[in-house]
Hints:
By secondary structure, the chain is of the alpha+beta class. The chain has one helix at 75-92, and strands at residues 9-14, 20-31, 34-41, 55-61, 67-71.
Amino acid sequence: xxxxxxxxxxxxxxxxxxxxxxxxxxxxxxxxxxxxxxxxxxxxxxxxxxxxxxxxxxxxxxxxxxxxxxxxxxxxxxxxxxxxxxxxxxxxxxxxxxx
Length: 99
């Protein structure tokens, strides 16, 4: 499947209390055989040079065989995956104004 690099992906996520929020996918990574996604709230207006906090979610399969995104409870796992995304995002930053 071909992806359009300029197309932004949005997802509506539901928390444990049933509250829905819209998020934009900003990155994906695989770590130790599992898939992880970095997302930012879609409602936040962000300037191009401004850092925005992102959430990291892991793709799991629930007891019904459906894919779900869950938060990472293990601190070491979270730190390792956050390092991967931090490296990805720092590579995308153009520090000297040249590409």
